[in-house]
Amino acid sequence: MTITSAPTTRGPAALILLARLDSRRLPGKGLMDLAGRPVLGRAIDRLRRCRVVPAMLLATSDRAVDDDLEAFARAEGIGCFRGDASDVAGRCLAAMEAHGLDWFVRICGDSPFVDPEVTDAVAEAYLADPTLDIATNVFPRGYPIGASAEAVSRPALARICAATQALEWREHVTAWAYEHAADFKIRNISPNHSRYRGLSIAVDTPEDLARARAAIARLPDPTDATLAEVVTAYA
């Protein structure tokens, strides 16, 4: 896949969606039906509205259990990189190296209501300051779980991977940087209110999937719905 460069001197970038099919709490969740589209497909539909970083790349594991995820990504017209199942930071770094990316925006594939405007705001914050290592909306979290986005430079991710081999850190990609924030330049993006705190619109359990199905039935257009509209549908 050819990665489209972001309109910046900071170089080529992509939205990297992270997914695998053997989740302990809800196995196969990424390809489960959500109003006629898989959960991962709903995320892709919404992310196609992103302006700042239009390219998408699925990063999944190299195990046979995730073959169907690769097939789905190819059918959707987005690239797919396969790497270590547990070392997610290493998988992301290898995906960046394989596709010549200078930075990426991390998105969880179990986020069918990920918001393109919020994702763009994180990417724009990263681009606005060429000295940043990470722009994020989870440090501290002000947006719902399921609307997370993190823009990470390749050098910053390489530093994280060089700093620790412990999977409890590398599984969460950026956790080491947040724990050692004095060693990284990080900017957090937060909403101007506290209404989203403590909310989740991700799909991680059977109960989450049931809630997502109920919420999406209340949305006239799930692809174009704003984050506020999605949260209201969950209420």
UniProtKB/TrEMBL annotation:
Keywords: Transferase. InterPro entries: Cytidylyl_trans (IPR003329), Nucleotide-diphossugar_trans (IPR029044). It comes from the Bacteria. One of its GO terms (cellular component) is cytosol. One of its GO terms (molecular function) is transferase activity. SUPFAM superfamilies: Nucleotide-diphospho-sugar transferases. Signal peptide: none annotated. The keyword Transferase applies. This is NTP transferase domain-containing protein.
